[in-house]
Amino acid sequence: MKFGYFDDRNREYVITTPDTPLPWINYLGCQAYFGIVSNTAGGYSFYRDARLRRITRYRYNNVPLDLGGRYVYLRDDESKEFWSPSWQPTRNDLKDYACRHGMGYSVIGSTYTGIEAHTRYFVPLDENLEIWQLTVTNRRATRARISAFASIEFCLWDAQDDATNFQRNFNTGQVEVEDGAIYHKTEYRERRDHFAYFACSESGAGFDTQREAFLGRSRGWENPAAVEAGQLTNSIAHGWSPIGAHQVKLDLAPGETRQIVFVLGYHENPKDQKFDPPGSQIINKKTVKPVIDKYLAPQQADAAFERLRQYWEGLLGIFQVDTPDIHTNRMVNIWNAYQCMATFNMSRSASFYESGIGRGLGFRDSNQDLLGFVHMAPARARERILDLASTQLPTGGAYHQYQPLTKRGNNDIGGGFNDDPHWLIVGVSAYLKETGDWSILDEPVPYDNEPGSEKPLYEHLQRSFRYTLERLGPHGLPLIGRADWNDCLNLNCFSDTPGQSFQTTTNKDGKVAESVFIAGLFVHAGRELAAIARRRGLAAEAASYLAEVAKMEKIILQHGWDGEWFLRAYDDFGAKIGSKECEEGKIFIESNGFCVLAGIGLEDGKAAQAMEATRTHLATKHGIVVQQPAYSRYYLNLGEISSYPPGYKENAGIFCHVNPWVMIGEARLGHGDRAHDYYSRINPSAREEIGDLHRCEPYVYAQMIAGKDAPTFGEAKNSWLTGTAAWNYYAIVQWILGIRTSLEGLEIAPVIPRSWPGFTATRIFRGVVYRIDIERKGEGNRIALTVDGEPIVGNVVPPPTDGRKEVSVKGVLT
Ligand code: BGC
Ligand code: NOJ
């Protein structure tokens, strides 16, 4: 069953049924001011940091799940009936309901009793505000007198405190109303130098700033008393719960359309210019007013929207492809790239499944996110890399996350994950391949943000590599520490206390538990680092990395091979995990996928065997599960992985993040059919038809699809913020379509399905437009390339040396 359709020409997904199985959301903003908006206008906004600078309030785990947001109400002032054109919160029986989620904007609207209304929500580029453009049209044959209301609930900035510290918070709320604009200034009188505002383009028929005055006692958002009465009360909040609500009266002739603009924003003043007049307690509005006035003008709002549209056109234009598969095209050209921007911006902090207060920007996560994002905004990727590296510890290890507002690392969701440091090498390498900007390696970057500790970024990479060499276990494999990529494989934890966090509880300083996955990652990152060193003219250093890599490879093949597949780990007792000797958890995806991705066992057939075993034991019609058999009970020596019921999350769920490692593995073996088949199984667009089973948005990946051991096999959860976005993008673009960045230039090595006659693509790479046309003449993956009509040797297209800005590349596969 479908709940809408893709409008590829407009790059929109159009939801036509408001009652989707879960909130189907979109992100507003792509720089510093962000919002989440659901298909029924639920959600919230924040500045930079969903925990520390929350602008509007949102209650997670609500009933219904998604309630509270950017609600518009319309009231027929004659019949006194009121409704919300976004369906929630009033849930009327609307006509022609549609929510168009697009690139950085959403338009939600419907028709009710002959009144057509829709609201376009977006955040203009380079501004810390969001615009709501409400358009109301009278489709009746008679005049209509309509009141329009717009409402939001302010958050008292720190979302964690806001949701818990009521003894204080019920006393601190403060607002100002000036020239019809509402200013939220809680704590501005003391240490904050920022405030929020909510303004309206029409001189209003009323406002409210105290929640109780607007909603009435014992009522919710579904029937606000002031809307029902048809008149806002001009309340001024003192303590309790400040809100922003505006009322506008419209008198519409038949066929007449009116547009009202609302602007919700965030503003900072210099510390010594907070008040006007100085010495008073009144917000100095000198710098904010021009911004508000500008965007309340509909033509300025339209111009800002047009700029946003062009911005996305430019970003997505960096890579476009035309293949015989519509789901591939749509995800690569539009939605997967778009999701990569969201994961870059949010890491794992704020979605409908990440509360915005639980996690900040993950070290492992954000480095991997670069794989899918770096081509779109290399300057921002550069800044992110330097921010991440600045939190690295002097040991080469890493905090598991940092808070976006402070950019300081912390252990709130644990530390000591021994895979973390290597992802920095992977991220930096992706950046260098994309940009050729070698200067980044010389940037002075501190350790643990400690002034005075700055060393060139390159040294951070060296320390990342050494980190593992200084932490090897009894077999010579890397010690796992708290966990590796799989946060839930907690081999040193031994937690038997209810409710204790597996992520943060003190672990034993284990010297036995080893990870084959980290070994594979070490090989991969080590090769990347060696290539970087070689290009920097450090041949001996490069050779020493390769020697360590070769040693590790040998150890993997000796102690990390189980006969038919790669082992997963050794536990604290030195017992195997992910082995045929185990009762449960005999085979795991991570070590098999990543070792083959790293090229281990390609020569002696082990890679092919590992992929075959993965296919036999782990692949399902909905994707590849983490391990089999699922753990049926809790194992003290394994930790959180066995805490999940079978088939969910790390316990044999289909973790979509790691599926691409197998796709890449198959591509490395030359198996284009298999690689693309795995790609299609989890491709959300290809799953659109089974929307009632899949349940999450069909336009973005979810972190997990329930595995075959779960009663809900095939149901997705945790959409949007997942490494799945970057890895799938990377797998399809760089390994299946085979348009791959390398330190030397653009490499072309497609491993596509045999049935494809070819494909065409456009790639803007280091300032040059490459028009690529691949034609299949035989069944294999051998490619012969001609560049501007001239045959070339090998498959790396040399960058033009004569200033040409466009080249055409023809590839023939045989
Ligand atoms: C989840 C993991 C997550 C970890 C850290 C665990 O409960 O299963 O997927 O990475 O928490 O937040
Ligand atoms: C989600 C985390 O964000 C990611 O870092 C981790 O690798 C996976 N869960 C697997 O545990």
Helix/strand/pairing category = alpha+beta
Q: What percent of residues are in strands? A: 25-35%
The residue ranges in which pLDDT falls below 50 over 5 or more consecutive positions are none
Largest sheet: 10 strands, antiparallel
The ligands bound in this entry are: beta-D-glucopyranose, 1-deoxynojirimycin
User: What is the number of E strands?
Assistant: 43
- Gyration radius, rounded: 28 Å
Mean pLDDT across the residues is: 97
Helical fraction equals 25-40%
Q: How far do the termini sit from each other?
A: 40 Å
Given the C-alpha coordinates, what overall shape results? globular
* Tally of contiguous helical segments: 19
How would you describe this protein?
This protein is of the alpha+beta class and 814 residues long. It has 19 helices and 43 strands. A ten-stranded antiparallel β-sheet has the order 1-2-9-10-11-12-19-16-15-14, covered by helices on one side. It is globular. Bound molecules: beta-D-glucopyranose and 1-deoxynojirimycin.
Task: Name the descriptors.
single chain; 814 residues; alpha+beta; ten-stranded antiparallel beta sheet; six-stranded antiparallel beta sheet; globular; binds beta-D-glucopyranose; binds 1-deoxynojirimycin
Brief overview:
The protein is α+β, with helices and mostly antiparallel strands and 814 residues long. The strands form eleven sheets. The protein has a ten-stranded antiparallel beta sheet, covered by helices on one side. Helix 8 (363-373) runs parallel beside helix 19, helix 10 (420-435) packs parallel to helix 12 and helix 14 runs antiparallel to helix 15.
